[in-house]
Each structure stands twice: as structure tokens, then as C-alpha cells.
Amino acid sequence: MPIVLATLATVGIAAMLWVGGHILLVGAEELGWAWPYDLVHHVEVAVHDATGALGGVLGWLTNTALSAVVGVVVGAVVVAVLHVVPKRGGKAAAH
After folding, report:
1. Which of 21, 25, 49, 83 could make an S-S bridge to 37, C-beta 3.0–4.6 Å?
2. CA distance 12 to 9
3. Mean pLDDT value across residues 39-52
4. Does some domain include residue 80?
5. CB neighbour class for 65 (10 Å; exposed up to 12, middle 13-18, buried from 19)
6. Into how many domains does the chain fold?
7. Which domain holds residue 43?
8. What is the mean pLDDT of the chain?
9. What is the CA radius of gyration of the chain?
10. Angle 21-48-38 (CA atoms, 0-180°, nearest 5)?
11. 6: in domain
């Protein structure tokens, strides 16, 4: 059972990064900042056109992977900022 739970956790983390990154890309485009979404889309189309019969699957996988990269990068920036900004209250949390 621990192998199943570890696998489920890994798949869940990957899915959250993918979905979160895609939400950020689409949201940025809707707000008028279209270049990140356009970049991912153009790479997806290039992979689709270059790979023949597997183009649909490989294009989708490319979009998914790049969306996950966006999620990781934005998440890393948020974590870095939160580690630099001092905590309110002045005391470290007891663990």
C-alpha cells in the first residue's frame, strides 16, 4: 500500500503543477499578457507538425510539460519571496 500512496502523491503533485501552470498561462492571456501562452502554444504546434502521426499526443504532452514548468517556476518564486519576507508576529512557529 505505501507504493500506491507514494505513486498517488507523485501523480497528484505533477497534476497540480500542470493545472496550476495552465491556469496561470490562460489567466495571463485573458488579462492581456499573451506572450507566455503564445510561446507555449507555438512550441506545441511546432512539435505537433514535426512528429507526424504522433503529433497530437506529443503536442499535448509538450503543452502539459511546459505548463508544469510554468507552475514550478512561479511556485519557486512564491516560495523564495515568502522565505525572504519577515513573518508577522515576530516569533518563529514552534515545531
Report:
1. 25
2. 5
3. 97
4. no
5. middle
6. 1
7. 32-73
8. 93
9. 18
10. 45
11. no
